[in-house]
Specification:
This protein is of the alpha/beta class and 267 residues long. The chain is 48% helix and 13% strand. It has helices at 12-23, 56-62, 96-103, 134-145, 156-167, 169-186, 191-211, 216-226, 229-239, 243-258, and strands at 4-7, 32-35, 51-53, 65-68, 86-89, 107-111, 122-128, 148-152. It binds NADPH dihydro-nicotinamide-adenine-dinucleotide phosphate and (2S)-3,4-dihydro-2H-pyrrole-2-carboxylic acid (A1CAB).
């Protein structure tokens, strides 16, 4: 049985990925070790065989696959020789080259899920270094498929962009929702009702969008052609150049993701 060690696996993203994988049997409890600085995190109680530790060296010694899920600023504290192991990183801002140099690893997979993983609704692009095997890639795909949709991509430049688009994406939707709630409140709607309305709007609208045969652009055009209240709103948003601040936000987030990383085109 492949032994899987997850450094920082009790954190926000780590648990969002691991709990669905455990629930689906993609990972067996007895094959999983999770580390944290505190040594014990809640959430794994349904799988009592999952081991928890503060000791990353012991975790690594027992593991065939090591996943890194700590915040980038905490990575320097983790010095391990992971040569001969598959290393999976879900960390933003840490490149394949950096991971290879730090951990003497050659088989490395970088993936960029988002926190909708906890609802099994992540979009998770990933890429692999040239030395990874088919079995390595299959392991990673099974792991990430438990918490959403996966997409293999070719370059770290793309991964940095997806870090902004879908990694950070839930926060960008939240800012749009917050802007709608704020406007509703200024128009006299009680905040609690506005919040309830906008949460349901996002659920309903995004469910329609996800299942629609039309592209988002076509959906917008359908409403523009309808020439009613929605069109009036869409035209005012276009006149205020709504695309530009969205593009600026994505560009800034992608630039931060790329800062300090070196592109490695894996073909
Ligand atoms: N959250 C998000 O939306 C996304 C995050 N990511 C990436 O995922 C990674 C993790 O982020 P996230 O889960 O949000 O962060 P969290 O802070 O929620 O989790 C990080 C975990 O790392 C643990 N940790 C820190 N230092 C060590 C150490 N030396 N040894 C063992 N465990 C350690 C912490 O343990 P303790 O609590 O005990 O200190 C904590 O549980 C980041 O690199 C981020 O870039 C990627 C996509 C989306
Ligand atoms: O904000 C961050 O840095 C992490 C990476 C992508 C989403 N959250």
């Amino acid at each position: 049985m492949t032994q899987f060690g997850v450094i920082g696996g009790g954190g926000w993203l780590g648990k969002a990925l691991l709990l669905p994988a455990l629930a689906d049997g993609v990972i067996a409890g007895e094959a999983l070790t999770v580390s944290s600085r505190s040594g014990t995190v809640p959430g794994f109680e349904p799988w009592p065989a999952v081991r928890q530790t503060k000791d990353n060296a012991a975790l690594a010694a027992d593991a065939d696959v090591v996943m890194l899920s700590v915040r980038p600023q905490d990575l320097d504290a983790i010095a391990l020789d992971l040569s001969g192991k598959l290393v999976i990183s879900v960390m933003a801002m840490v490149s394949l080259a950096d991971l290879a140099a730090r951990f003497e690893a050659r088989r490395i997979i970088r993936a960029m899920p988002n926190t909708a993983a906890e609802k099994r609704l992540s979009f998770t692009p990933w890429l692999a270094s040239p030395d990874t095997t088919e079995a390595d890639c299959a392991f990673a795909e099974r792991l990430f498929e438990a918490s959403g949709k996966v997409q293999r991509i070719a370059t770290e430049t793309e991964l940095d962009y997806f870090t902004a688009l879908t990694g950070s994406g839930p926060a960008f939707l939240a800012v749009f929702a917050d802007a709608m709630i704020s406007d509703a409140v200024t128009k006299g709607i009680e905040r609690g009702i506005a919040e309830r309305a906008v949460r349901q709007l996002f659920l309903g609208g995004s469910t329609l969008l996800a299942g629609s045969k039309q592209t988002p652009d076509e959906i917008v055009q359908t409403f523009l052609d309808y020439a009613g209240t929605t069109a009036a709103g869409l035209e005012a948003m276009a006149a205020a150049d709504i695309h530009t601040p969205i593009a600026r936000g994505l560009t800034a987030a992608a630039a931060k993701a790329a800062a300090g990383t070196r592109d490695c085109d894996l073909g």
